[in-house]
Amino acid sequence: MATSGVELLGSWASPYTNRVQIALNLKSVKYDFIEENFYSNKSKRLLEANPAHKKVPVLIHDKKPFCESLIILQYIDDVWTGSGSSILPSDPYDRAIARFWAAYLDDKWFPSFKELETAPEDSRTTIVAKIFEGLILLEEAFAKCSKGKPFFGGDNIGYVDIVLGSYLGWINVTEVTLGLKLLEESRTPGLAGWAERFRLHNAVKDFVPEAHKLIEFYMMVQAAKASAI
């Protein structure tokens, strides 16, 4: 299938945008990237393309918009079947398990990181404990899903790899700001090794932002919000 007529509305700092970029790279899909200001002054095009949520990412393919990153990943996998490896497993059970862990990451685990942003000092220990509990579950999931191979998807990067991997930049931000190590080899050796392999993959290495850049971005956003009050 031709790869022309593909655009991505997103932000370099958004993990949800990053995961779509990684998926497009895995499938060798050429696309035009349009940087959006997702926290203020949203473009007319973004608002028209995603009127329900008004947020990035939005994939536009043949002038049709697709919203929500997990849905976009599945769409990419369904459309560009002849290019690159499959993102979702072909086996129905493995496919369901991959979707389960992706939903767990987005709906339950990563929201704990967002809690830390506004949490008072005396409650941070409890939240960090929840994050570590989730990492233990993910370590077990990695062992089962990978079946001894390098990635959740086996020999190649798959659905869960992309979803978890898109958060690595912001995970590093938390490590830097709190002075702790989350993906440590002594606690979760499987995930620690996986993270290194994931970051070095050709489809990934340009799309997991460095922690210092994300911290600068976060401070800029907070300053913009404060000045708008």
TrEMBL record:
Chain ranges of the GST C-terminal domain: 91-227
GO terms for biological process, alphabetical: glutathione metabolic process; toxin catabolic process
UniProt GO molecular function: glutathione transferase activity
CDD domains found in the cross-reference section: GST_C_Tau, GST_N_Tau
Start and end residues of each GST N-terminal domain: 4-84
Enzyme Commission number(s): 2.5.1.18
Span of the signal peptide: none
Source organism, top-level taxon: Eukaryota
UniProt keyword list: Cytoplasm, Detoxification, Transferase
Catalytic activity entry: RX + glutathione = an S-substituted glutathione + a halide anion + H(+)
InterPro entries (UniProt xref): Glutathione-S-Trfase_C-like, Glutathione-S-Trfase_C_sf, Glutathione_S-Trfase, Glutathione_S-Trfase_N, GST_C_Tau, Omega/Tau-like, Thioredoxin-like_sf
One CC-aspect GO term: cytosol
Broad class of the protein's primary localization: cytoplasm
Localization per record: Cytoplasm, Cytosol
UniProt xrefs under Pfam families: GST_C_2, GST_N
Function: Is involved in the conjugation of reduced glutathione to a wide number of exogenous and endogenous hydrophobic electrophiles.
Family under the similarity heading: Belongs to the GST superfamily. Tau family.
PANTHER family reported in the protein's UniProt record: GLUTATHIONE S-TRANSFERASE U17 (PTHR11260:SF615), GLUTATHIONE S-TRANSFERASE, GST, SUPERFAMILY, GST DOMAIN CONTAINING (PTHR11260)
Protein name: Glutathione S-transferase
Origin organism lineage: Eukaryota, Viridiplantae, Streptophyta, Embryophyta, Tracheophyta
